[in-house]
Specification:
Blueprint: E1 3-10, E2 17-25, E3 28-29, H1 34-43, H2 46-67, E4 77-78, E5 81-84, E6 89-92, E7 95-98, E8 104-112, E9 115-123, H3 135-153, E10 157-160, E11 163-166, E12 173-174
């Protein structure tokens, strides 16, 4: 895997800051982040437009505003990452969450209850990621997650005031 930039995707929610990754090949940073690629691609396909909006709402409202990145919302463990939306039926307060046969998966790395890294995803068209058309996005998300987890463990990345920072103090994180 080439280098990538870990950057804020959305920090306007009250309970969670969302990060994403952007590839940086030979010093040339790709314009679109992996998360933006996902939402733009599936929002443009009429068959998946409603599911895309529903998933974006789940991320920003359920995780970002209502509950934070709690375990109950990150219960679809898929190796190094979690698949969103959550699996099964869940009631939190007055809100019911249920996504039976949801057609899309967005991969994420939950770092704390207030920090989540969103990657790319795709159409969940098989029982497992290994046999699904989103296999490459899942493998790539797992690779990103491994590198981020390793950087946190080695203190290349630190958590400061519920934000990720390079250990040099910079907000720009190249991995």
């Amino acid at each position: 895997m080439n280098t990538f930039v870990l950057e804020i995707w959305n920090d306007e929610c009250s309970l969670c800051t969302f990060y994403t990754v952007r590839n940086d090949d030979d010093g040339v940073t790709v314009r679109e982040s992996e998360t933006d690629k996902f939402f733009e691609k599936y929002d443009a396909i009429p068959k998946f437009e409603k599911a895309t909006i529903e998933l974006l709402n789940f991320v920003l409202k359920a995780i970002g505003e209502d509950h934070g990145a709690i375990d109950e919302l990150f219960n679809r463990h898929e190796n190094e990452v979690d698949g969103l939306p959550l699996k099964g039926f869940l009631i939190l307060g007055n809100t019911k969450y249920n996504y039976p046969n949801f057609p899309l998966r967005l991969f994420a790395l939950r770092i704390t209850n207030s920090i989540v890294v969103l990657f790319n995803g795709g159409i969940k068209d098989s029982d497992t990621n290994q046999t699904s058309s989103l296999r490459m996005q899942w493998k790539e998300a797992c690779s990103y997650a491994k590198r981020i987890t390793e950087a946190l463990r080695n203190r290349e990345i630190i958590i400061e005031n519920n934000k990720l920072k390079c250990n040099t103090g910079s907000d720009t994180i190249y991995l």
